[in-house]
Amino acid sequence: MLLVYCPYCGVERPETEFSCGGQAHIARPVDPSAATEEDWVNFLYMRSNTKGVYVERWRHTHGCGRFFNAVRNTVTDDFLSFYKAGEPMPDLEELAKEAGK
Asked: The whole model's pTM is what?
């Protein structure tokens, strides 16, 4: 079982308290009314599905209910970092180097 840290509550709990919302930092089309069908398909369905370090949105569903972001290595299933929604994404290469030690 994975242990997930909520940066809002400041607690680490089993993954069953949380919901994963998929890839984080997906930008909506700037002008939705001018967006093409391809723009919407890319926004709604296309994800990078990276093997290795990946940034995901999580929600503490059985806790505070807030969304936050987590950096996870999809190969080892280890979490490398957690941060609040709206905060900038950390340097993924640096986190991967630190985790490799």
From this structure: 0.86
